[in-house]
Amino acid sequence: METIKYDETQLNEAAKELAVGNLVAFPTETVYGLGANVLLPEAVKQVFTVKGRPQDNPLIVHVASFEQVKEYVDNFHPLTEQIVKNFWPGPLTLIFHIKKGSLPGIVTGGLSTAAFRMPDNKKTLELIQLAGVPLVGPSANTSGKPSPTTADHVFHDLKGKITGIIDDGATRIGVESTVLDLSDPSAPPMILRPGAITKEQLEVVIESPVATDRHLVKESETPKSPGMKYKHYSPDTRVLMVEKTDWPEAIIWTKEQKLRTGVLAGPTIADQVRKDVAAVYMYYDDSVEAATKGLFAGLRGLDDDRLALDLILVQVAPEEGLGIAYMNRLKKAAGQNYYKK
Known about the structure:
It contains 12 helices and 15 strands. By secondary structure, it is α/β, with parallel strands linked by helices. The chain is globular and about 60 Å long. It is an enzyme of class 2 (transferase). Its EC number is 2.7.7.87.
């Protein structure tokens, strides 16, 4: 199969492919998604096949309006309208209890709930409207590997396996959406996966507490949301997290162990260690925004076979605000492992 890169003049063509059950990757403000018609189980099954993704892992349903959600949900949490008004379109996924039989079981992972999102990307919103149905849209990559933040990342993983990719350059945020569980109308909203929309931002809008689920789902468990597995987003090369004060010692250790090492960090750390390692992928500045945007691209870049690295060392960030989302992805990429001599 030839995989086509669609531009903005070819959205109607891409929508027609989706309508008949073919797969098309699309851009969002977070990462690129792998699109399939949500109402065609065979098309959705192909998403799992080409990604190599377990079918117990539920998919996020991407919509172009809140009205589309109402076709599948009839019992909303009382805070839903307020949350949607303030954060859609945007990097926030909402989980609702759905009408029985309204979505194929392969979409929901066999659960009675489903996740919905309205992405903040004009091309993709137009694509969904043209297709006439919502689209499933897990990250458009090989399952378990760093998520794609450019069309080239998608092409690297899925060329020859999907019909096309809508190219819209690099994504703006760089990590997947916040997932908020609203499936129990009588319970407080709960964050299942951190993202660019923070607990604090949500609490300001709804003027009440938001809970956080810090449970790491084991391989034998069915997650309620994507991205809850203990290890995820992992390159083939071993990854270790490094605390700010441990960098000098970590670099000495890699030399003693004769490890060919890459470093993923902001300019301050990158400039300090550059002469002592095999490769550096540098964030555009030292901010957590830059780290979040560059994390997956950096992991992919340093995992290139041509570099033949034994180890990737990555800087950590304070676990507050956007740093919670950054560290959530980094910890899973590193299998929760820090540098410790």
